[in-house]
C-alpha cells in the first residue's frame, strides 16, 4: 500500500530523518525492571569495549542472539528448513 501522506519536513525545510526499514516480525515483551537494567548494563559494557564502533549491539541484536542460543540449547535452532543459518 502506497502512503498518500505528505513527507514530514524538519523546521529548516529538509526532509525529516526516516527510520530504516526493518525486516522480521516484531515481538513485544514485558521484562522485570531488574532484568531490563541488566540488559542495559550489558549493552553499555559492550559499547564501552568497542573502541572503533561506539554503537555496539542493539537491544534487538542482543535479544535475537539470546533467543537463538536458547532455542539451540533446546534443539530447535537452526531449523531443518535452513532458515537462520546465516551465521
**Percentage of helical residues?**
25-40%
* Range of strand content: under 5%
Low-confidence stretches: none
Written as H for each helix and E for each strand, in order along the chain, the element string is HH
What is the overall shape?
extended
Q: Work out the number of β strands.
A: 0
What structural class is derived from the secondary structure elements? mainly alpha
What does this structure look like?
- With 87 residues, this protein is mainly alpha-helical.
- Helices cover 37% and strands 0% of the residues.
- The protein contains 2 helices and no strands.
- It is extended and about 55 Å long.
- The chain starts with 32 loop residues before the first helix and ends in a 14-residue tail after the last helix.
- The relative contact order is 0.06.
- The model has no long low-confidence stretch (mean pLDDT 81).
Amino acid at each position: 500500500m502506497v502512503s498518500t501522506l505528505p513527507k514530514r519536513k524538519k523546521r529548516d525545510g529538509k526532509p525529516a530523518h526516516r527510520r530504516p526499514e526493518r525486516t522480521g516480525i516484531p515481538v513485544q515483551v514485558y521484562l522485570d525492571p531488574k532484568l531490563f537494567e541488566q540488559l542495559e548494563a550489558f549493552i553499555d559494557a559492550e559499547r564501552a569495549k568497542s573502541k572503533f564502533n561506539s554503537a555496539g549491539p542493539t537491544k534487538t541484536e542482543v535479544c535475537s542472539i539470546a533467543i537463538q542460543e536458547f532455542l539451540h540449547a533446546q534443539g530447535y535452532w537452526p531449523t531443518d528448513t535452513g532458515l537462520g543459518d546465516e551465521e
